[in-house]
Amino acid sequence: MSRTRNGVYPGTFDPVTNGHTDIIFRAAQVVDTLIVGVAVNAGKDPLFSLDERLDMVKNEVAALDPETSKRITIVPFGNLLVDFVEEQNAKVIIRGLRAVSDFEYEFQMAAMNARLNKRVETVFLMASDRHQFISSRFVKEIGKLGGDVEHFVSKAVRDRLADRQGLGD
Predict the structure, then answer these.
(1) Which of 44, 119, 130, 137 is catalytic?
(2) What residues does each domain of the chain span?
(3) Which of 26, 95, 98, 140 is labelled catalytic?
């Protein structure tokens, strides 16, 4: 009897960056089905609404090759991550690591999640070298100050960011 390996890649995705998309693609190569969990996370005061963030992630996933994108679903969540993982019949949380500075926080979160649910494992994927420095926070700041974010996000996300920040053409 073969089992399907489901994994969850959680995040706020405010906005989704090329680094996120890279991790999504690579994570989909590791699991049979990838659930991208878009966190409600109102505490972070997101620039984009949940529906907008879901739409952006869906568009980025749709742009991946069809064999990969058909194994990825995008789902909103607002509960405890380990509970969301169980609801999705997954056993793996996938997290991206950009730099050493990410490690301490991610290590603490993985330990806490393991304590909350021993059936769930956390797997870390290192960011590709060309995406190691990208963060949604920096992308929003660069865009807000009128800088070009084309190397960090897709054209569709760049246009949405410019419109939201009042910098559209």
Answers:
(1) 44
(2) 6-129
(3) 98
Active site residue 155: no
CA angle, residues 86, 90, 95, in degrees to nearest 5: 105
20 labelled catalytic: yes
Q: What is the third-level CATH fold of 6-129?
A: Rossmann fold (3.40.50)
Q: Are the C-beta atoms of 10 and 77 separated by less than 8 Å?
A: yes
140 annotated active-site: no
pLDDT along the chain (169 residues), means of 10: 85 96 96 97 84 97 95 97 97 90 88 95 91 87 90 94 76
The pTM score is 0.93
Q: Which of 26, 53, 95, 136 is catalytic?
A: 136
